[in-house]
Amino acid sequence: MLTQPIAKKLTESGITISMNRGVNGIDGVVSTAYGLALTEPSRQHYCLLGDVAALHDLGGFVLPKGETPVNLHFVIVNNDGGGIFSTLEQAGVEHFERVYTTPHGVDLAKVLSQLGVRQVAPGANHKIKSAPVVVLKFLKLSQ
Question: Which residues contact 119 (CB under 8 A, 6 or more apart)?
Fold first, then answer.
């Protein structure tokens, strides 16, 4: 959730933040990002999402034949599941990992490559504007 001062500063800077179903919706995040980017094709767009959300919407990474790519870059936190849930109170209960973090063991970079998605590996930030997907092994967001 964005605090009022942060939201105000982003708005004044011309930055727009959009989310699916509040902050907890993972279904269709990729497709939603493409849809939003299509509404303002002259602007640069970024979508920050987790690997589970990316897996839930793999079809969204496939650009239909004849469609023009949009100014959209994805930053994917690729940590084999919902690592963010480890901060929950119930993190220590039995079956927590299976139920909450849902580790998948999928090589997301390989899957996206098979779909024809160009990628930039971590540490290659100078190329971020030339590829639509950045697959991160782990990204820790601090306050």
Answer: 109, 112, 113, 131, 133, 134, 135
